[in-house]
């Protein structure tokens, strides 16, 4: 019988790539979708017609229990979150509830539905394997570079703090109940399906608009921030490998190479034959209350134990995104009403 996966955050960037990957692997894929009329639902159905949809919300414990009871998954991937860092200052409590407490609710739903009673820990309690989408934002103000699985956390945003809670809780359920519960500490990963609020997609869309004469400038915040950017399609494969491993362990996933926002802009404008310095305007209002200056992964453990490696380079990623946005806007899509899928 096909293995069955339940994905929260199915309407997001990673949810779409992960669902495609699992379907290719012969899985039966179920996606948790929230809301009465989720606007991303029709796009999801169009792209992922083989995914079965269940309604639920990470804010609603009962809904998660019902979903796990109904789907009876072999694997649960918890990708649902408020994931945009600046929003986590504006709606800090909601971020704590969805991005942090949502992990608790999902773990409790799995624990209850798989009959793991409190105190009944020990090796491999319950059958459902759980993946938590942890983040390099937990490292925040870094104490060492590159960052590995043992690097201390110093989160710099309510988002990073909420992710750290989810991370430690996943570890705690593994230790308390013997559940197969793991976290992937993923560094920034991008694609043509990335939300337009994140810097890579903001830049690729901005370049495409300028190239096509639809805009004259691109406003950005901190150009000196450095990130380890990879391709989302590569990273979802690591999530799947973690749940297929012999032992439940956490892994850092990234490329091991850093670039600044300035270098990102330079590469993206160059990919369209433009000089970035003519168009980029820095805007103080886009700076964050507390910045994460640099992040760089040390993915040695994932390479050695999972055989995982990123395939798409930074330059290939930037070209892929710029080309996709040029095609999107050339095809007549209203730039203010674009469809990132
Ligand atoms: P997106 O922002 O693209 O997707 C977030 C998803 O969460 C959406 O499907 C959204 O659904 C869902 N969601 C939001 N609120 C709720 C809720 N209350 N209940 C259920 N679902 C909800 O994120 P990504 O795909 O980029 O990231 C996936 C996960 O990985 C996130 O947890 C993110 O924090 C984490 N992460 C991402 C990294 C990256 O670089 N992309 C790096 C490290 C970690 P809806 O359509 O309803 O809004
Ligand atoms: P990040 O991604 O905060 O790292 O979180 P984002 O792309 O938003 O920012 C990256 C860096 O770019 C700087 N920056 C700008 N950012 C945005 N969004 N818009 C701008 O105009 C701009 N100008 C400069 C930022 O200050 C920052 O330093 C992403 C999310 O996917 C999280 O959910 C995930 O956990 C982490 O990556 C790993």
Note down, in words, how this protein is organized.
This is GDP-mannose 4,6-dehydratase. InterPro entries: GDP_Man_deHydtase, NAD(P)-bd_dom, NAD(P)-bd_dom_sf. With 341 residues, the chain is of the alpha/beta class. It folds into 2 domains: 4-189 and 230-253, NAD(P)-binding Rossmann-like Domain (Rossmann fold, 3-Layer(aba) Sandwich); 195-228 and 257-294 and 313-337, UDP-galactose 4-epimerase, domain 1, CATH 3.90.25.10. It is built from 11 helices and 13 strands. It has helices at 13-24, 41-47, 61-71, 85-90, 92-113, 158-177, 199-211, 232-244, 261-271, 300-306, 314-330; strands spanning 4-8, 28-33, 52-55, 75-78, 129-135, 181-186, 189-190, 218-220, 226-227, 230-231, 251-253, 259-260, 280-282. Strands 3-2-1-4-5-6-11 form a 7-stranded parallel β-sheet, sandwiched between helices. The protein is globular, with a radius of gyration of 20 Å. The relative contact order is 0.13. The model has no long low-confidence stretch (mean pLDDT 95). It binds NADPH dihydro-nicotinamide-adenine-dinucleotide phosphate and guanosine-5'-diphosphate-rhamnose.
């Amino acid at each position: 019988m096909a293995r069955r996966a339940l994905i929260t955050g199915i309407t997001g960037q990673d949810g779409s790539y992960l669902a495609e990957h699992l379907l290719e692997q012969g899985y039966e894929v179920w996606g948790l979708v929230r809301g009465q009329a989720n606007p991303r639902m029709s796009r999801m159905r169009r792209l992922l017609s083989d995914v079965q949809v269940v309604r639920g919300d990470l804010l609603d414990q009962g809904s998660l229990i019902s979903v796990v009871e109904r789907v009876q998954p072999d694997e649960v991937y918890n990708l649902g979150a408020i994931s945009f860092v600046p929003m986590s200052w504006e709606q800090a409590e909601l971020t704590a509830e969805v991005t942090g407490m949502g992990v608790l609710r999902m773990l409790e739903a799995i624990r209850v539905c798989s009959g793991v009673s409190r105190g009944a820990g020990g090796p491999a309690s319950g059958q459902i394997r759980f993946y938590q989408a942890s983040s390099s934002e937990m490292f925040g103000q870094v104490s060492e570079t590159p960052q590995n699985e043992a690097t201390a956390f110093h989160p710099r945003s309510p988002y990073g703090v909420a992710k750290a809670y989810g991370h430690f809780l996943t570890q705690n359920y593994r230790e308390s109940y013997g559940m197969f519960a793991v976290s992937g500490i993923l560094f920034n990963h991008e694609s043509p399906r990335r939300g337009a609020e994140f810097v890579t997609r903001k830049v690729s869309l901005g370049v495409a608009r300028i190239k096509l004469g639809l805009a004259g400038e691109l406003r950005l915040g901190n150009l000196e921030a450095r990130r380890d950017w990879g391709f989302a399609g590569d990273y979802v494969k690591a999530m799947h490998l973690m749940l297929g491993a012999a032992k439940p362990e956490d892994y850092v996933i990234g490329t091991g190479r850093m670039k600044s926002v300035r270098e990102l802009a330079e590469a993206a404008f160059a990919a369209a034959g433009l000089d970035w310095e003519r168009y980029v305007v820095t805007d103080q209002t886009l700076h964050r209350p507390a910045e994460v200056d640099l992040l760089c992964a040390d993915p040695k453990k994932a390479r050695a134990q999972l055989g995982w490696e990123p395939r798409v380079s930074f330059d290939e990623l930037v070209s892929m995104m710029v080309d996709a946005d040029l095609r999107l806007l050339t095809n007549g899509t209203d730039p203010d009403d674009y469809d990132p899928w």
